[in-house]
Design brief:
- It is built from 23 helices and 14 strands.
- By secondary structure, it is of the alpha/beta class.
- The strands form five sheets. It has a five-stranded mixed β-sheet, sandwiched between helices. Strands 5-7-6 form a three-stranded antiparallel β-sheet. The chain has a two-stranded parallel ribbon with strand order 1-4.
- Helix 9 crosses helix 11 and helix 20 packs across helix 23.
Length: 568
């Protein structure tokens, strides 16, 4: 049993994206079924080592204690959400639906709505000065619904204090007062936010502060300033985790560059049903057997679409089927699949409309503003914002078919970043390809994390398409080791990467300059301009004395990339 050690809410933070649990759950329940998990460090370590061999695997294993890494993967998300049973390892009925592509988002929603504090899995530590009596995801959804929209800062500061649903009205009033005060501090929001964070955290953690327990696990610094800073970071971390899991259900979306959470218009009726019908009180708090029966049940809690008549009406309303008779003749599972397929088509139409807008440069100022927010770290989920906004910029930059390896929600907003085994963006120009890789990492971490994967992704594209392919590598700053590595790959044939690799490192500022040139040139640059720029990098690498000379040459060229003179 895990202990609740903080007077604020917490959410599943590992893994960050809920659907990353699917291959891990499948591996555990397929290859280790029937085994005992608890205390079995040998099995846990074996599972972790096996997991690391999967192509979907991301992250790192503790070489010193792989069993600890395994517990982090399994007991936080899969166990807490009732997707696996661990007394004897088995897939639960809820877990079975979660592994079904057609039912995964619905299964996740049911499990989030059942997650509660306290439970037989989570009890409050006696030292915690807070009452826990809440279904956190349910009440956060209610908060978004009642307020109409919820800013990310509001979720972190006030939503994370909703430890008892009886405090709901109090939290709503806190948010409304915050908004009134925010209006009074226009132009001074950062200072106002800092002062509000400090006041809120000192009130929430008053007992810890009063008893001198201000040393955090993350640091030996026991000063009050460091304590407040750490707790503020933790609140944002949990708010982020809450939002990521909720967005995966398809109920909510987040505005871009990612500051405001709202309910997706087409799901409002379903949300209203949930809030009106699901009991707010935790259940079976002291009865693990009955709690598990409830948690593992794939049919609980009941959703609006469990009513076949309602599902029929929804399918007709969304035009997923042609007639009411066709809806009635189909099974519930068939209708859910048809609705999901229809929403995918609808989403694609929204994205195509966005592409049309982008190619007209009508969103140019917005794209520039988002890049500015990313560099200032003033957006929600900067890595996601960078990948999405770079896709928008490449769509605007020139001709070609530009595909982001992103997941989008039903409102056409970015949902999650590309999986680690594929390029971030793929630009198809007919007879050649350009991949684009983006990162916010700097220093040696940039080279360590990106150097090999970037080249591998480029090699994979070459092998898959049989076409010439190049890569743009975009980051706020470019590390010297990355420059050296990409220069070397221009010169060296590596079979695994499809021969020599033309990978061009560009600072984000320089990439934005290339976009500005494209807007101001008076025409849409043709693919041959893109290819000429990439080929210039190859030529410059062949003639340069070293990587520094090469990088200077391609940087100068990027600053004037539409020039007819490739030797600029």
């Amino acid at each position: 049993m895990a202990q609740i050690k903080s007077p604020t809410l917490f959410f599943v933070t590992s893994p960050r994206t809920p659907f990353k649990m699917r291959p891990e759950i499948a591996l555990l329940t397929n290859e280790f079924a029937g085994e005992e998990w608890k205390g079995n460090t040998e099995l846990q370590a074996a599972f972790m080592r096996r997991l690391a061999t999967l192509p979907e695997f991301e992250g790192a294993i503790s070489q010193k204690d792989p069993a600890l890494s395994a517990r982090d993967r399994i007991t936080r998300g899969p166990k807490a959400l009732g997707l696996v049973a661990l007394d004897q390892i088995a897939l639960t009925p809820a877990g079975e639906n979660f592994l079904d592509d057609a039912l995964a988002d619905e299964a996740l929603l049911r499990q989030l709505l059942k997650f509660q504090l306290p439970s037989p899995f989570h009890k409050a530590n006696a030292r915690v000065d807070a009452t826990f009596w809440v279904k956190p995801y349910l009440e956060i959804l209610r908060l978004v619904s009642v307020l109409g929209r919820l800013a990310f800062d509001e979720l972190a500061l006030f939503g994370m204090q909703l430890t008892d649903w009886h405090r709901f009205d109090e939290i709503v009033e806190d948010v409304r007062r915050f908004r009134i005060e925010k209006e009074k501090h226009k132009g001074q929001y950062k200072k106002f936010l800092y002062e509000t964070k400090r006041r809120v955290i000192m009130a929430a953690f008053a007992k810890e502060i009063a008893t001198g327990r201000t040393r955090t696990r993350e640091s030996s610094d026991a000063t009050l300033d460091n304590f407040v800073k750490t707790k503020a970071h933790n609140l944002r971390d949990y708010a982020d985790a809450c939002l990521r899991y909720f967005r995966a259900t398809g109920l909510v979306t987040i505005s871009n560059p990612g500051r405001t959470i709202s309910i997706i218009e087409s799901r409002r009726e379903e949300v209203a049903f949930i809030l009106a019908n699901i009991p707010r009180d935790p259940v079976f708090v002291d009865d693990e057997k009955r709690y598990c029966e409830y948690l593992y049940d794939a049919a609980l809690p009941m959703l609006m679409t469990d009513d076949k008549t309602v599902l029929d009406d929804k399918a007709v309303k969304l035009r997923a089927v042609a007639t009411k008779q066709e809806a009635k003749a189909a099974s519930a599972s068939e209708l859910k699949k048809k609705i999901k397929q229809h929403l995918e088509v609808q989403k694609r139409a929204i994205i195509e409309s966005q592409i049309t807008e982008l190619k007209s440069f009508s969103k140019y100022d917005d794209v520039v503003d988002v890049f500015g927010g990313i560099m200032a770290r003033d957006v929600y989920d900067p890595p996601l914002a960078l990948e999405w906004n770079t896709w928008r910029a490449m769509t605007m930059l020139d001709g070609g078919t530009i595909a982001a390896n992103l997941n989008f929600d039903d409102a056409g907003n970015p949902l999650s970043t590309a999986p680690g085994n594929a390029a971030d963006i793929v630009c198809n120009y007919g007879d050649f390809i350009v991949t684009v890789e983006v990162t916010l990492m700097s220093g040696n971490k940039q080279y360590d994390a990106e150097g090999e994967p970037v080249a591998r992704h480029l090699g994979d594209i070459k092998a898959k398409t049989g076409k010439e392919a190049y890569c743009l590598f975009v980051a706020p700053t470019i590390n010297d080791s990355s420059i050296s590595h990409f220069y070397m790959l221009h010169q060296t044939k590596v079979k695994h990467y499809g021969g020599k690799s033309v990978i061009i490192p560009l600072t984000l500022k320089r990439f934005m300059g290339m976009l500005a040139q494209s807007k101001n040139c008076g025409y849409i640059p043709a693919p041959d301009k893109v290819r000429a720029f990439c080929e210039y990098s190859r030529t410059a690498a062949a003639s340069a004395d070293d990587e520094t000379e090469w990088y200077s040459a391609i940087s100068r060229k990027a600053d004037n990339w539409l020039s007819e003179n490739n030797a600029s």
